[in-house]
Amino acid sequence: MRGKKESQRDLLALINLEDRIPQRHPIRLVKAMVDTVLERLSGEFDRMYAQRGRPSIPPERLLKAKVLSALYSVRSDRQFCERLNFDLLFQWFLDMNPHEAAFDASTFSKNMDRLLGHRIAELFFMEVVELAQRQGWVSSEHFSVDGTLIEAWASIKSFRPKDEEPPPPGASRNDWVDFKGQKRSNDTHQSTSDPEARLMRKGPGKEAKLSYGAHAVMENLTGLCVLIDVRPACGEGCAEHEVASDQIDELTMRGFDVQSVGADKGYHTGKFVRECRDRFIAPHVARVSGRKTPGLDGRTARSEAYKQSQRARKRIENLFGWMKTTGALRKSRYRGVERTHHLTQFVAATANLIRMAKLLGQHPRSPLCPAVG
């Protein structure tokens, strides 16, 4: 029998958000891990905020909002606040009641900016990595390094000569521009929209874009990202292999016993290989044909450990692929290295949480997922 549409709506409705989320939904595992991480950061939150004054948006909800934005490809804080008003899953993840009003977008952004001023993005990412370490999912010996470009929030039209006179008042900001025959470099030109962005191409024949460089370190056991930095895409001190050397030192300071590092041909330089050998680290770097480098010869390339590292290092491209598609990080939503770095930390942490949720689903008796029986 055909059902009839009820034209009169209920004036009151009792809704339990917990019942609306399926018990086997993977978002439950992600939420359980995020709650564990935020509980360990509670002391940091107490030190960040004053004891008196007007209450802010709870920092736990601000950080959970960043995780949701990466999970569901939300492109801006304003769009997130709009969706929070009608998405029950978002309200459940943030531990909100259905009758609570959604955040004002301007207030949300200002509270987030204050929170990021205390390096909370790095702390959140590190706590996610430490959570994975406690579960035994992180290798402390074998790693892979790689870099990628994040397109800056600036048009190529804004890449103007540094000594150019400013336009007169009332002039058009989007005039037609012909770049044919012009020589442009980061030494002589600079973006007027984002001065920290640099003109860079990833390889020969690729299109040059205003970009930032993201440099990641992945452990080879389960493919989790243990360290990620965003720096200017080019310039002195920003070559990929030099950033990798700094990251290896940071891993050592954090207690990792680095024994091997896998990398692509972009890291096949004498300096990087020598620095790895000086640290008693095996440089499992893909070799450039015809290039001879002391410390990286046929004996290294023929070893089984080298072959395993070369197979494992390709998984870091999966990380970059997820961050740029689902995580919406192909193009930065912010201007400047610092804010782009914070955004990248949250997206990388969320990528780790997705991977950890899959690992956690294989061990349902873990105390981190009480909802899974």
Descriptive report:
- With 373 residues, the chain is of the alpha/beta class.
- It has a domain of 175 residues: Nucleotidyltransferase, domain 5 (2-Layer Sandwich).
- The chain is 40% helix and 12% strand.
- It is built from 14 helices and eight strands.
- The strands form two sheets. Strands 1, 4, 5, 6, 7 and 8 form a six-stranded mixed beta sheet that branches. Strands 2-3 form a two-stranded antiparallel ribbon.
- Helix 2 packs across helix 14.
- The longest helix is centred in the last third of the chain and has 25 residues.
- It is globular.
- The model has no long low-confidence stretch (mean pLDDT 88).
CATH class of one domain: Alpha Beta
> Mean pLDDT across all residues, rounded?
88
Low-confidence parts? none
Distance between the termini: 39 Å
Number of helices: 14
CATH architecture of one domain: 2-Layer Sandwich
Q: What is the N-to-C succession of helices and strands?
A: HHHHHHHHEEEEEEHEHEHHHH
Give the strand content.
Answer: 5-15%
Structural class: alpha/beta
Strand runs, count: 8
Radius of gyration (CA) equals 24 Å
- Give the helix proportion (percent range): 40-55%
Largest sheet data: 6 strands, mixed
CATH topology of one domain: Nucleotidyltransferase, domain 5
Q: What gross morphology would you assign?
A: globular
